[in-house]
Amino acid sequence: MENVIIYTRVSTDEQAQKGYSLRNQKSTLERYCLNNDLTILAHFEEDFSAKNFKRPAFSQLLNFSKNNKKRIHKILFTKWDRFSRNIEEAYKMIRTFNSYNIEVSATEQPLDLSQSDSKVILAMYLVIPEVENDKNSERTKSALHKAKLEGCFTGLAPKGYKNQRDENGKSTLAIDHHKAPYIQRAFEMYSQGMYSIQEIRLMLIENNIKISKNGTISMLKNPTYLGKIYIHRNKDYNEQLVEGLHPAIIDQDIFDKVQNNFSEKISITTKEPKEIDKALPLRGHLICPSCNRNLTGSSSKGRTGNSYYYYHCNPPCRVRFKADDVNILFELMLEEIQIKEDIASLYRKIIRKIHGSKTNDIKIQKQSLKRELNKLLERQSSMEDKFLDDLIDVKTYNKAKLRNSKRIQEIKVSISQLNSLDDNFANHLKSGITFIKNIRKLYAQADIKLKKLLVGSIFPEKLTFEKNQYRTKNISYLLECIILENNELKYLKIEKTAKNDGFSKKAPPLGLEPRTL
Question: Tell me, what's the pLDDT at 414?
Answer without folding.
Answer: 75
